[in-house]
Amino acid sequence: MDVPQSGIFALGTPAHAYLEFDASVGTNPKDLAAAVISFAEAQTMANGSEVVVGFRPELWRGVARDDAPDDVAGYAEPIVGVEGFVMPATQHDAVIWIASAAYDLVFDLSSMAISALTKVATLADETVGWPYYHKHDLTGFIDGTENPPVVDVASVALVPGGRPGAGGSVLLLQKWIHDTAKWTALSADAQANVIGRTKAESIELEDKPRDSHVARTDQDEFGRILRRNMPFGKASVHGTMFVGFCASQRPLAGMLDSMAGRTNGVRDALTRFLQPISGSYYFVPALTSLSRVASHATTSAPG
Description:
Elements: E1 15-23, H1 29-43, E2 50-55, H2 57-63, E3 79-80, E4 86-87, E5 94-100, H3 103-116, E6 121-129, H4 150-157, E7 169-178, H5 180-184, H6 188-195, H7 213-216, H8 219-222, E8 226-227, E9 230-233, E10 238-246, H9 249-260, E11 274-276, E12 280-284, H10 287-300
């Protein structure tokens, strides 16, 4: 049985960190994978914390060919949309997502992760996330309204059994900076039209505009995903860390193209108030896949 990484589904943790790494020059990808897996195996569920790890799809495919989907690719090129809108590509080699009940635990685990990988990788980006009024994002709207119910979440987020990479998940990680002054200058009705939902009740508008965020990312059209987004930053500079999991890359990529206006020339209205500054795809292998790679690394090491 292919056992997924439990942190993908571990809701309710208020403190988060997203650590993205690039392999050091001359590092064998297998050594990077082994170091990441070793840290994850030692720290997952330490003090109630969750650790989720992922890899650039091409890197993981080179390390564990039989445990990697064939049709997942890194975020290698920026997405150029209409009106000069661009979603940048900042693909890295590995990601470690740490979630816990308090930031002191996250801080300690983040420091340990950086230290554990120091011989094989350099820290490319570190982002700290925290919840905003429970389920809201920094626009004031409820985030993740369309997330699947518990009974369906595995089928939405995980590669089905019997396929390469079974039990794993495709992760899209993006940072979006908010123009809060511009956003808060809108009336409540104008904000609802940008999102495509009411603000207080998060009810989808029957007559939502074609360029509303809900219309441009319609999961009935593109496919279902699991969102684990978190706010990040400080009062002066802040935004949303988009954390999207899916059994396939297609729904995630389709939504990005739609938001940028590449599908029909209609750009997502929300992109006029939020600006992406990063973008990476990672494959998040099942625990069983990680164990196989770790076991092979141990048995093949010189004695």
